[in-house]
């Protein structure tokens, strides 16, 4: 039998913003905002005992005072903590760095804890590593470093679809590493990618994946995969539209049995059609 049929088909759904890209123009977030939010979503806090006992209290109203390991949450989200001379007090001190536990990246939440991003401090998440999360700033800097292109083999210029500024990867390299492994493993399985976004960046993402499939990614110059070359006919734009059938009589069905359609239905349109 075909080697690609020995494993079940794998369908992977990817969101774009803060998953494939460190950017979210549609949400009004800069790359720096997204970076801070991503880290804030994996920095877990202890839920205060009184909040745990009050089942009616939403997490968005919880004001945590401790990180997951019990160490105190220091600083002020209203602005950087200042000493008496007006200097930033703790941002890069080794003492404060020790007071922030490691990020929690497991699927299940620890009992009695939640992400910083889910608490009342969510509104400060875009600047997280500049106040409460200063101890995680080194992680933000490491991520930025990992997004740099570095030297390109042969001194060639990188394809503009892979890097829009010639300095940073447009899409997270980990995505291409994942896809490369799936499409080169033996025995092969059928893989389908579904990429969704509320923004207007789908064309750019499709172009980057196409460049990767054509061997234009500097980390995978020998990779070729025609089935990942995406064209306009592979892209769709969704839109909710009023249903023409809402509360409309269905022929041959009694009044008691009439099917009532939703007031709106979801339609898919060609990407370049308005």
Written account of the structure:
The protein is α+β, with helices and mostly antiparallel strands and 274 residues long. 20% of the residues lie in helices and 12% in strands. The chain has 6 helices and 6 strands, in the order E-H-E-H-H-E-H-H-E-H-E-E. The protein has helices at 31-42, 49-53, 94-97, 137-146, 173-184, 202-213; strands spanning 10-15, 44-46, 113-115, 191-196, 236-242, 264-270. The chain has a two-stranded parallel sheet. Strands 2-3 form a two-stranded antiparallel sheet. The protein is globular and about 55 Å long. The two termini are 44 Å apart. The relative contact order is 0.15.
Overview in brief:
By secondary structure, the chain is of the alpha+beta class.
Mass-distribution shape: globular
Helix-strand makeup class: alpha+beta
| Overall helicity | 10-25%
Low-pLDDT windows of residues: 81-94, 246-261
Provide the spatial order of strands within the biggest beta sheet.
1-4
Number of strands: 6
Mean pLDDT over the full residue set: 83
Give helix and strand order, one letter per element, not per position: EHEHHEHHEHEE
> Span between N and C termini?
44 Å
Radius of gyration: 24 Å
Strand content: 5-15%
Query: So how many helices?
Result: 6
Strand count, sense and closure of the main sheet?
A: 2 strands, parallel
Draw up the topology in text.
Blueprint: E1 10-15, H1 31-42, E2 44-46, H2 49-53, H3 94-97, E3 113-115, H4 137-146, H5 173-184, E4 191-196, H6 202-213, E5 236-242, E6 264-270
Parallel strand pairs: 1-4
Antiparallel strand pairs: 2-3, 5-6
Keywords:
alpha+beta, two-stranded antiparallel sheet, 274 residues
């Amino acid at each position: 039998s075909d080697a690609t049929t020995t494993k079940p088909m794998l369908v992977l759904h990817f969101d774009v913003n803060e998953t494939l890209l460190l950017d979210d123009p549609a949400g009004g977030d800069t790359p720096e905002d997204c970076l801070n939010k991503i880290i804030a979503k994996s920095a877990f806090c202890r839920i205060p005992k009184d909040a745990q006992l009050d089942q009616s209290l939403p997490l968005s109203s919880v004001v945590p005072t401790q990180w997951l390991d019990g160490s105190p949450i220091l600083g002020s989200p209203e602005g950087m903590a200042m000493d008496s001379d007006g200097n930033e007090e703790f941002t890069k001190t080794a003492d404060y760095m020790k007071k922030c536990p490691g990020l929690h990246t497991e699927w299940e939440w620890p009992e009695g804890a939640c992400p910083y991003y889910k608490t009342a401090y969510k509104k400060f998440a875009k600047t997280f590593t500049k106040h409460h999360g200063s101890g995680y700033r080194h992680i933000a800097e490491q991520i930025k470093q990992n997004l740099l292109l570095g030297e390109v083999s042969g001194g060639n210029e990188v394809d503009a679809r892979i890097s829009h500024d010639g300095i940073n990867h447009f899409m997270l390299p980990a995505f291409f590493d994942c896809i490369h492994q799936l499409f080169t493993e033996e025995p092969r399985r059928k893989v389908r990618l579904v990429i969704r976004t509320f923004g207007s960046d789908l064309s750019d993402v499709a172009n980057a994946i196409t460049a990767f499939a054509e061997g234009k990614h500097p980390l995978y110059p020998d990779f070729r995969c025609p089935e990942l070359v995406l064209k306009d006919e592979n892209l769709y734009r969704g839109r909710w539209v009023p249903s023409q059938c809402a509360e409309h009589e269905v022929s041959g069905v009694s009044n008691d049995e009439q099917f009532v359609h939703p007031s709106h239905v979801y339609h898919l349109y060609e990407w370049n059609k308005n």
